[in-house]
Amino acid sequence: MKVITATEHSIPKTPSVVTIGTFDGVHIGHQKIIKKLTTRAAEQNLISVVLTFFPHPRMVLQHNANIKLLNTIAERKEILSALGLDYIFVQEFTMAFAEMSAREFVKNVLVDQLNVKHVIIGYDHHFGKNRAANIDDLRVFGSEFGFQVEEISAQDVDDVAVSSTKIRNALNSGDILTATAFLGYDYYINGTVVRGKGFGKKMEFPTANIRVDEAYKLIPKNGVYIISSMYRDKIIYGMMNIGMNPTFDGNKKTIEAHFFDFNEDLYGQKIRISFLDRLRDERKFESVDALIAQLRQDRTNAQQIIAQRNV
């Protein structure tokens, strides 16, 4: 699989089947569409192309929108690449691109750049300036430019009943299990381990403080979570606190991971944290000893849940 952009000259000349969307999260609904895409490509001897956008259109069109995304663009590419695609075409979404008419988009991007012969698109998809064109308009353009349009029916979409917005809402409320069910994989963040204040180490719970790589990445609701990561090709488990460290009168949000039975130095390393479940809300304790007692209970609870998960 190869990632290409509109500024590159390595755009394939082989006829293609294309689907279009932001694909934030690449959730089970997206995966169903991409499965259909790769199937059609094999049937018709076409190459499969996902046309996606970055930045997210709402980031450009709604200047005050503080939208948080399920994936960074690097994560989106990584997840898509595992689904058997030939190409991912990343279209930079700018105000100039947003002003492009529907016909210009079809001619300049789908036809001239991607040599499209088959488009798979949702029944409610809109495109072009002011999102004025719909699937019926796309069929007209298909007749003009020589490509077929395949509709993803309302029933197909509704059968999955998934949306990126629903997943964001689940994560914002701390509902990790619902997010996992909709995504089809454990939600994760990527970041760099940085030095903190060392409170955890003094309490027998040393933590890795995580600085997330991209500001637009969605961080789940404050609280204590069960997590996993990979270290030297081995899964390690632990728990993570997201929040303000109220027992220590913290005034800055931190993301701190404690791994069970793990003593390696992670400072400066890139790390991926997957969320498995949520244990509790963050709260202020009357003393450090009370916090330590709760952390011990959290560890016991987490290890029991991990053991059940791995049965």
UniProtKB/TrEMBL annotation:
Domain of life: Bacteria
Any GO molecular function: ATP binding
EC number: 2.7.1.26, 2.7.7.2
Domain Riboflavin kinase: 182-307
Function field: Catalyzes the phosphorylation of riboflavin to FMN followed by the adenylation of FMN to FAD.
Entry's family note: Belongs to the ribF family.
Descriptive protein name: Riboflavin biosynthesis protein
Species: Gelidibacter salicanalis
Higher taxonomy: Bacteria, Pseudomonadati, Bacteroidota, Flavobacteriia, Flavobacteriales
